[in-house]
Amino acid sequence: MERFSLKKNQDVAAIGVVTEAIEIQENVSIPEDKVIIPSEVKGKVLDPRALSNG
After folding, report:
1. Which of 5, 39, 40, 43 has a Cα at 20 to 30 A from 19?
2. Could you tell me the mean pLDDT of each successive run of 10 residues in the chain, 54 residues long?
């Protein structure tokens, strides 16, 4: 197992953070006019049937 450490004088910059949240619920409907998503948040609407194995 490799370990990485940062020295105190090393410059560190964050390029971006990707967070994925996956939750599949059947028979759930959220009206689009009731949801406010900030412009900096990118999201996808997926068809749960396409994600299932059956």
Report:
1. 5
2. 54 60 67 77 74 63
